[in-house]
Design a protein that fits this description.
By secondary structure, the chain is an alpha/beta fold. It folds into two domains: 117 residues, 3-Layer(aba) Sandwich (Rossmann fold), CATH 3.40.50; 96 residues, Winged helix-like DNA-binding domain superfamily/Winged helix DNA-binding domain (Arc Repressor Mutant, subunit A). It has a five-stranded parallel sheet, sandwiched between helices. Strands 6-7-8-9 form a four-stranded antiparallel sheet, covered by helices on one side. It has a three-stranded antiparallel sheet with strand order 10-12-11. A hairpin with a 3-residue loop joins strand 11 and strand 12. Helix 2 packs parallel to helix 3 and helix 6 packs across helix 8. The longest helix is centred in the middle third of the chain and has 14 residues. The radius of gyration is 18 Å and the shape is globular. The two termini are 25 Å apart.
Length: 224
């Protein structure tokens, strides 16, 4: 199931949001401020973030900017008591995908979260299928027809990332930040090595191909 990070300094709000999300089948992790939220995000795979604006240490504006910098594709939903138009505009300019004002209906919140996950092709089963290939993020297994294939973790995450948004071009820097982490100190050419290995592993399949976009990066083209 998708994992939702709830960042809010109000314990009651966190408990309420997490309760409804868990009842709806989601996993949740919590943070009391923006700084802690970044630490949680760096330590655990997260599929969507619900964040408050007014938090101590690091506010929601800054958190939104940092999360968007780390992962341009991470769905973000601002949940706040401040609902003025200019604040909504600022939130969208910083990269939030949706906005919900307190007090809120928990059913509306879960509906908005599901809509965002669907938009980002993150299904509740955490699987991606194209052609004869199925990627399962829960087990980190790849099914090619009836054959099960286990990939090294980073190769799986790289393939899953590219397959999640077929046709979208990712730079080496984006892939390094989103898979290895923003603190990765190695050579970004490691992406080229992993792409080469994936191409070799799936050389016999016509279900997809990973294309090099000269001067930009890589994209996956899936064939149904």
């Amino acid at each position: 199931m998708p994992t939702i990070l709830v960042a809010d300094d109000d314990e009651n709000i966190r408990e309420l949001v997490c309760l409804f999300l868990k009842n709806d089948g989601f996993e949740t992790v919590e943070a009391v401020d923006g700084k802690q939220a970044l630490a949680v995000y760096a330590a655990k795979p997260v599929d969507l973030v619900v964040l408050d604006i007014m938090m101590p240490i690091m506010d929601g504006w800054t958190l939104c900017k940092e999360l968007r910098r780390a992962n341009p594709d991470l769905p973000l939903l601002m949940l706040t008591a401040r609902g003025e138009t200019w604040e909504k505009v600022k939130g969208f300019e910083l990269g939030t995908d949706d906005y919900l004002t307190k007090p809120f209906d928990p059913l509306e919140l879960t509906a908005r979260i599901r809509a965002l996950l669907k938009r980002y092709r993150i299904g509740t089963t955490q699987t991606i299928q194209f052609g004869n290939i199925v990627l399962d993020r829960q087990t980190y297994k790849v099914m090619v027809g009836k054959e099960s294939l286990t990939l090294p973790l980073k190769e799986f995450e790289l393939l899953y990332k590219l397959a999640g948004t077929p046709g979208q071009v990712y730079t080496r820097e984006q892939l390094i930040d989103q898979i290895w982490g923003i603190d990765y100190a190695g050579d970004d050419r490691t992406i080229d090595v992993h792409i080469k290995r994936l191409r070799e592993r799936f050389a016999s399949t016509s279900d997809f191909r990973i294309e090099t976009v000269r001067g930009l990066g890589y994209r996956l083209e899936a064939h149904e």
